[in-house]
Amino acid sequence: MPAFLSADLLIQGSYLLTAFLFxxxxxxxxxxxxxxxxxxxxxxxxxxATLVTFLYPDMTNYPLIIAAIVVGSAVAWWSGxxxxxxxxxxxxxxxxxxxxxxxxxxxxxxxxxxGDHGLVTMVLAVAGGLIGAVSFSGSLIAxxxxxxxxxxxxxxxxxxxxxxxxxxVALALGxxxxxxxxxxxxxxxxxxxxxxxLGITMTLPIGGxxxxxxxxxxxxxxxxxxxxxGFVLGNAAMIIAGTVVGxxxxxxxxxxxxxxxxxxxxxxxxxxxESGGGAAGEVTGSMKSIEASDVGVMMAFASKVIIIPGYGMxxxxxxxxVWELTQLLVDRGVTVKFAIHPVAGRMPGHMNVLLAEAGxxxxxxxxxxxxxxxxxxxxxxxxxxxxxxxxPVARNDKSSPIYGMPILNADKAKNCIVVKRGQGAGFxxxxxxxxxxxxxxxxxxxxxxxxxxxxxxxxxxG
Length: 462
Description:
Elements (H helix, E strand, L loop, with lengths): L2 H27 L5 H19 L8 H21 L5 H26 L5 H29 L11 H20 L6 H19 L7 H23 L2 H24 L4 H6 L22 H9 L3 E6 L1 H6 L2 H13 L3 E6 L9 H9 L6 E3 H4 L8 E5 L8 H4 L18 E6 L19 E5 L2 H15 L1
Parallel strand pairs: 1-2, 1-4, 2-3, 4-5, 5-6
Helix pairs in contact: 1-2, 1-9, 4-5, 4-8, 5-6, 5-7, 5-8, 6-7, 8-9, 11-17, 13-14, 13-17
């Protein structure tokens, strides 16, 4: 058997194994019990695909490739070890943007190189370049918003028309390149400039409260771009990886939009989502505060307590204290469960990861559909840093921007305790009617400090 033929068989066989590892890894990531091993499986697949690439007979520039892998791996390892859980959403946005940028760079190499590519190959190269460039620049804007580098949303009259014109320009330029009408470097450069600008202008108007959905969408787009460029290069591993990421990202985007009872178009093109910009109906009544000692007694003698974590818990890094409080209550015979909303935090699974980090068993954590019916039998619902996901106006105020959004029924518990640093509105800027109900009491203060006081109160009961 010729050497090149045996090498090709090894490469294709390795890509088949890579596909298996990717798919099995994704399947295992669907459960928190097996998610860690799923990441290892998928990582092994990526490592295998990377190593096999060196077997291509026409491979050159080994020093540059190895240097890029070493530098990229070192930066990823360092940043991954140092990033706080509260900053994980923007890191995901940044890394996702890098994936889109990589796909666009592959397209750029092929388009600047020119050559007699077939129509299908050119169309896929242009499509991958457009999608990858939009995902790259859009993800960087999302990173800037979540990191606090971009503190406001930018809107102007006729912005959607401007974005549509940008898209038309990018498609026209891309069509010229794909059809070999004009594939000069100037046209290719203009095409990528229009695509990058489109990603920026699409994302700038979107408020921070919608960023999780946007990040998920750009993740799907990055996968699609990678799959297209995989076809261009004839690389099966890229096609499989891109398809898996694209389909998973699409499903996740749909899940999150559904959890907010909003269409993707509404997320991308409406003004809602900007911190401080949400409309709110008139809320009557007043917030009633309570001392930690009183809450400690209430929880210690409760039959069932449901804890609802939110981004405020992540900011305060209170998850370990929350688990310590849970253990004290369980030792006293109290049934304790955690209720997780699909869009709690700044990304899907944010709260699950935080609680798992603290050691909370998976069987104590329930999602919205599993737990909502139990609030009516709960003595205490303890809300730590959550806001919109427990706001009852979503059920009864048709004028509210979040009307129709599925929420956790914290207001139906016998007593609702809200741990909050101040009296301000949540990330979307909508006043929370839950805070003004007769069965709600506000425990003001930093999340970690407040829970520490609850622990001390429970221990003092003996």
